[in-house]
Fold this protein.
Amino acid sequence: MSYIYKIHHIPTSDPTLLAFLAGKFAALRLTALSISAAAFSSTFAIESTFTASQWISRLQRPEVHTFIAVAYSPNTKPEQETIDAGDWVGSATLLGPTPKDIYDIPGSGGPEIGGDDIESKWQMYAVYNNPEHRGKGIAKLLIKGAIEYAAKEAGVGRQSRVRIMIHPNNILVKKLYDGLGFVDAGHCTLSEAFLATGDSGLLPADRGASQPEKYDVRLGIIMARVSSFDDLR
Ligand SMILES: CC(C)(COP(=O)(O)OP(=O)(O)OC[C@H]1O[C@@H](n2cnc3c(N)ncnc32)[C@H](O)[C@@H]1OP(=O)(O)O)[C@@H](O)C(=O)NCCC(=O)NCCS
């Protein structure tokens, strides 16, 4: 079956709508964590314990911007292509803008990053598309949506840096980011990946100190793309 696909940015200002959308988001995210477990730092075991109000408050964090790919049947009228309708099939989350002193990962081996006066800094994560909709350019649309949002927020005359961390088990996906102009930007540990996505609270109580072979090995692949609003216009 062919579908119409549309990318939406989850709005967080209407509490009733947000409660409904948070339920849809939780279902999509838990599907991602169960069928594509090897791709992510977080796990189904961690996120399946979140309550409805935790899902809402996670989406409501002011620095979190969540993009959703929605599939509509081909006879859907444009005015019916709203975020609360259709099937939610994919997502990408953008966190930022983050000041340089918090964003920078000393020891990552990546290139020097610019000051906050010349570029705004963003972390993209949780990029996912349901298997039955893969290979149709949906992830590209989600990632471009996030890049464009970051560039727009940075404003005219300022650059935006979007960074992604790739799980070492998921190296083939690099091709997706290569094709969208991302370049290699060093390596990270699992605890750095949790910190970079604003989820240090999901680390174990000892922040991984008792499992250094899991949390402190620098195997994650960092890629980044620097864009300007002018380039994307
Ligand atoms: C990775 C993922 C999001 C791609 O979704 P998708 O909608 O099928 O991607 P697209 O159709 O937009 O593909 C874009 C490009 O990336 C390439 N690509 C996508 N996934 C790839 C993979 N696993 N290995 C190699 N290349 C891949 C495609 O070849 C395509 O390039 P092309 O258009 O030049 O042929 C999807 O496979 C997925 O959800 N995987 C599990 C979760 C995951 O790995 N997320 C990434 C975390 S960093």
